[in-house]
Amino acid sequence: MTPQQKAESLGIVFEKLTPGYLNLCVRSGHQLITSGHVSVLKGKLGAELTKDDGYKAARNCAELILRSVWNAHGTLDGLRVLKVLGCVNSAPDFIEQHLVINGASDLLHEVFGKDGDGYHARSALGFASLPTGAAVEVEAIFEIK
Length: 145
Prior knowledge:
By secondary structure, this protein is α+β, with helices and mostly antiparallel strands.
């Protein structure tokens, strides 16, 4: 199954997006670089939200990223995930940002293969706040093979 087919089998719906204020995914040479995509879920991890809530929010961010990449490239096929940056809206004593961002990484592994094109470098960081009060924000860089 191709990455595009796998994403669709997971229920991810791809439709043309209307351009907004910022470019959600820009091509530079053989790379696709996404803007940060924020989760629909709002709140602070380690306060009103649990690690599991954050995991789902990070997965939501990865779905949004895949839609933006599809809009810029027309398919998910022929891509390799290079880098993921995950930002977590964290209470001061919350230290499980890496487990939250696994939600994004796990989806990318499912779509592109954990031992293949989905195996990526990653950073997971805690922040005092994120835009719109989002629980999680994720950005990614893809290589066009």
